[in-house]
Design a protein that fits this description.
The protein is 53% helix and 5% strand. The protein is mainly alpha-helical. It has a two-stranded antiparallel sheet with strand order 1-2. Helix 1 packs across helix 4 (61-72), helix 1 runs parallel beside helix 6 and helix 3 (48-58) crosses helix 4. The radius of gyration is 13 Å and the shape is globular.
Protein backbone atom coordinates (compact mmCIF):
# COMPACT_ATOMS: atom_id res chain seq x y z
CA UNK A 1 0.00 0.00 0.00
CA UNK A 2 2.77 2.42 0.85
CA UNK A 3 4.29 1.69 -2.57
CA UNK A 4 1.16 3.22 -4.16
CA UNK A 5 1.25 6.13 -1.72
CA UNK A 6 4.84 6.70 -2.82
CA UNK A 7 3.88 6.35 -6.49
CA UNK A 8 1.26 9.09 -6.16
CA UNK A 9 3.67 11.30 -4.20
CA UNK A 10 6.34 10.86 -6.88
CA UNK A 11 3.76 11.59 -9.59
CA UNK A 12 2.70 14.79 -7.79
CA UNK A 13 6.35 15.82 -7.52
CA UNK A 14 6.99 15.10 -11.19
CA UNK A 15 3.90 17.14 -12.12
CA UNK A 16 4.99 20.08 -9.96
CA UNK A 17 2.04 19.83 -7.55
CA UNK A 18 4.39 19.36 -4.60
CA UNK A 19 8.13 19.43 -4.09
CA UNK A 20 10.42 17.55 -1.75
CA UNK A 21 10.38 20.67 0.45
CA UNK A 22 6.58 21.03 0.58
CA UNK A 23 5.12 20.89 4.08
CA UNK A 24 3.09 17.87 5.11
CA UNK A 25 0.86 18.88 8.02
CA UNK A 26 -0.37 16.11 10.31
CA UNK A 27 -4.08 16.02 11.05
CA UNK A 28 -5.50 14.45 14.19
CA UNK A 29 -6.28 11.41 12.02
CA UNK A 30 -2.69 11.09 10.80
CA UNK A 31 -1.19 11.70 14.25
CA UNK A 32 -3.43 8.99 15.74
CA UNK A 33 -2.25 6.18 13.42
CA UNK A 34 -0.79 3.25 15.32
CA UNK A 35 2.91 2.43 15.21
CA UNK A 36 5.09 2.19 13.30
CA UNK A 37 5.10 5.96 13.05
CA UNK A 38 7.19 9.09 13.44
CA UNK A 39 5.04 10.46 16.25
CA UNK A 40 4.43 13.92 14.80
CA UNK A 41 1.74 15.68 16.83
CA UNK A 42 -1.49 17.08 15.37
CA UNK A 43 -0.68 20.34 13.60
CA UNK A 44 3.00 19.45 13.32
CA UNK A 45 4.64 19.25 9.92
CA UNK A 46 7.51 17.64 8.08
CA UNK A 47 8.72 17.93 4.50
CA UNK A 48 7.57 15.66 1.71
CA UNK A 49 11.11 14.32 1.53
CA UNK A 50 11.06 13.38 5.22
CA UNK A 51 7.64 11.77 4.80
CA UNK A 52 8.92 9.70 1.87
CA UNK A 53 12.04 8.63 3.72
CA UNK A 54 10.03 7.71 6.81
CA UNK A 55 7.68 5.54 4.76
CA UNK A 56 10.57 3.79 3.02
CA UNK A 57 12.82 3.26 6.05
CA UNK A 58 10.40 3.08 8.98
CA UNK A 59 7.11 2.17 7.30
CA UNK A 60 5.62 5.20 9.05
CA UNK A 61 1.83 4.91 9.01
CA UNK A 62 1.31 8.49 10.20
CA UNK A 63 3.44 9.85 7.35
CA UNK A 64 1.54 7.77 4.78
CA UNK A 65 -1.79 9.09 6.07
CA UNK A 66 -0.52 12.68 6.12
CA UNK A 67 0.75 12.40 2.52
CA UNK A 68 -2.59 10.87 1.50
CA UNK A 69 -4.47 13.75 3.10
CA UNK A 70 -2.17 16.28 1.45
CA UNK A 71 -2.70 14.80 -2.01
CA UNK A 72 -6.33 13.69 -1.71
CA UNK A 73 -7.83 16.15 0.75
CA UNK A 74 -8.79 13.23 3.00
CA UNK A 75 -7.78 9.62 3.27
CA UNK A 76 -10.97 8.20 1.70
CA UNK A 77 -10.54 10.36 -1.41
CA UNK A 78 -6.87 9.43 -1.57
CA UNK A 79 -7.79 5.73 -1.43
CA UNK A 80 -10.07 6.28 -4.44
CA UNK A 81 -7.17 7.98 -6.23
CA UNK A 82 -4.94 5.03 -5.37
CA UNK A 83 -7.43 2.51 -6.73
CA UNK A 84 -7.94 4.57 -9.90
CA UNK A 85 -4.18 4.67 -10.46
CA UNK A 86 -4.00 0.92 -9.84
CA UNK A 87 -6.53 0.37 -12.63
CA UNK A 88 -4.64 2.74 -14.94
CA UNK A 89 -1.47 0.70 -14.33
CA UNK A 90 -3.28 -2.56 -15.10
CA UNK A 91 -3.67 -3.70 -11.50
CA UNK A 92 -7.05 -5.45 -11.77
CA UNK A 93 -7.03 -7.28 -8.43
CA UNK A 94 -6.36 -4.39 -6.06
CA UNK A 95 -8.59 -2.06 -4.05
CA UNK A 96 -7.14 0.47 -1.62
CA UNK A 97 -8.98 1.79 1.44
CA UNK A 98 -6.16 3.64 3.21
CA UNK A 99 -2.73 5.13 2.54
CA UNK A 100 -0.72 2.95 4.93
CA UNK A 101 -1.80 -0.66 4.44
CA UNK A 102 -3.03 -1.44 7.92
CA UNK A 103 -5.83 -4.05 7.84
CA UNK A 104 -9.13 -3.06 6.29
CA UNK A 105 -11.59 -5.73 5.14
CA UNK A 106 -12.26 -3.84 1.90
CA UNK A 107 -8.59 -3.54 0.96
CA UNK A 108 -6.92 -6.31 -1.03
CA UNK A 109 -4.29 -6.97 -3.67
CA UNK A 110 -2.44 -9.74 -5.48
CA UNK A 111 1.23 -10.59 -5.82
CA UNK A 112 0.94 -9.91 -9.56
CA UNK A 113 -0.44 -6.43 -8.94
CA UNK A 114 2.35 -5.62 -6.49
CA UNK A 115 4.88 -6.72 -9.11
CA UNK A 116 3.19 -4.42 -11.66
CA UNK A 117 3.39 -1.55 -9.17
CA UNK A 118 7.03 -2.23 -8.32
CA UNK A 119 7.97 -2.23 -12.00
CA UNK A 120 5.97 0.96 -12.60
CA UNK A 121 7.72 2.72 -9.71
CA UNK A 122 11.13 1.83 -11.11
CA UNK A 123 10.24 2.64 -14.72
CA UNK A 124 8.24 5.84 -14.19
CA UNK A 125 10.23 7.41 -11.34
CA UNK A 126 13.85 6.21 -11.43
CA UNK A 127 14.95 9.65 -10.23
CA UNK A 128 13.29 9.01 -6.86
Amino acid sequence: TKMMTLYLAFEAMANGKISKNSRVVFSANAAAEPPTKLGVKRGGAITVETAILSMVTKSANDSATAIGELLGGNEANFAHMMTAKARALGMKGTVFRNAHGLPNPGQFTTARDMAVLGIALREHFPQY
